[in-house]
Design goal:
Structural class: alpha+beta
Helix content: 40-55%
Number of helices: 3
Radius of gyration: 29 Å
Shape: rod-shaped
Oligomer: single chain
Strand content: 15-25%
Number of domains: 2
Order of helices and strands: HHHEEEEE
């Protein structure tokens, strides 16, 4: 039972590091240290404890960390900006790339906008969202295909 105290100290240190860093890295090694501690209470075989520590730590790190980061990481901000690409928007403030001006409304939200082609797009025009660059939408005017045919 002489190794138990060392595994307990390692466990406490790893948990403390995780508490202060919140990096979701040392917690998995703390899991390995916990398993090694429990094994050391029953069998005092250092080689087995080290092998279990490494195996459990790596298994937890590689198999559970991606899942935890995906669903529980508070720093991750989910956005659905991709869904507005290809949508039609209304220009609410004249788009002028040279003067860094322009605003559109799409799906009820106002966005800064710039023209993909660099041309000026007047207020009230309809545009299509081509891409999102940072907090600006890159837009292109909607082509008006309503051509009046006059009969002669």
């Amino acid at each position: 039972m002489s190794n138990s105290i060392y595994w307990l100290i390692i466990l406490a240190v790893l948990i403390a590091i995780e508490f202060f860093t919140l990096g979701l890295t040392t917690i998995w090694f703390a899991g390995g240290a916990l398993v090694a501690f429990i094994v050391s209470l029953f069998m005092d075989i250092l080689f087995l404890e080290i092998v279990l520590f490494i195996a459990v730590s790596l298994a937890l790190l590689f198999f559970t960390r991606p899942i935890v980061i995906k669903y529980f990481n508070p720093k991750r901000v989910r956005t659905n900006y991709e869904r507005i690409i290809g949508k039609e928007a209304l220009v609410t403030l004249k788009i002028d790339n040279i003067n860094a001006a322009g605003e559109v409304i799409v799906e009820g939200q106002y966005w800064s906008a710039r023209s993909v082609e660099g041309n000026i797009i007047e207020e009230g025009s309809r545009v299509v969202v081509e891409e999102v660059q940072g907090v600006k939408l890159m837009v292109r005017p909607v082509l008006n295909l309503n051509i009046n045919k006059e009969e002669k």
